[in-house]
From TrEMBL:
Gene3D superfamilies: 2.40.50.100. It comes from the Bacteria. PROSITE patterns: BIOTIN, BIOTINYL_LIPOYL. Keywords: Biotin. The keyword Repeat does not apply. Residues 39-117 form the Lipoyl-binding domain. This is Biotin-requiring enzyme. It comes from Carnobacterium iners.
Amino acid sequence: MKTYEVTVNNKVYQVSVEEVNEADSKNKAIALDNENKKEEPVKTPVLSGIEVKAPMPGTIISVLVQLGETIKAGQVLCVLEAMKMENEIVAPEDGTIQEVMVSKGMAVEAGASLVRL
């Protein structure tokens, strides 16, 4: 095993490197790959649809859609007031409203889910 000093962003790190032959390396890689396949986590179902999120913190001043409504791309879903400006939150694509997570007067943070298509 060899020890080296490596400088990254003006910080010095000591690292140890072990020399291995190519055949052992390939066998270890295959064994690790097989272990990973056995221990693959169970996948949980993902809700279908797209969540439309708030681009900034603010207050919802109107919700223009309701559950089950069919909408078109670019259609205004709700209006968010932020810094005394009204921001129309629009649908990114055609779809059907699966869930409305906000109501008039509700305060939201940036990144909060508003509507799911």
